[in-house]
Sequence to fold (136 residues):
Amino acid sequence: MSKYESGVKQIPHPQKTVYDTLSDLSNIEKVKDRVPADKIQDLTFDHDTVSISVPPVGNITLKITDRDEPKCIKFETENSPVPFNLWIQLLPVTDTTCKMRVTVKADIPIFLKPMVSGKLQDGVDRIADALAMLPY
Fold:
């Protein structure tokens, strides 16, 4: 398994508020108009699952497998060309701010690793940036 971690992102909202928003994927409805149509298509979601089509990768479905309130949300792929797990970790900084890190562990075949490692790291960083900018 290969591990990719975002940098630590500061979020100007309380840890519990951020956790409550991210642990219920139905909240995507509030921000789905911000998702770039050229990057992600066919976005569908419910409380525990989100599915997207990412050209040229294909369809990806992530399901929340564990919630450790208010510290961590763990996701696992149900449908993906490459199986992976994703964690969103949250730590309080003050009563009104927190910090976040996104981690992905992917089972990448050795021959694909040189081609996809940079893109995966970039994707993890972009996810963290996007989550840090949400209007919690």
About this structure: The radius of gyration is 15 Å. Strands lie at 2-5, 9-11, 41-45, 49-54, 58-68, 72-79, 84-92, 98-106. The chain is about 20% helix and 40% strand. The mean pLDDT is 90.
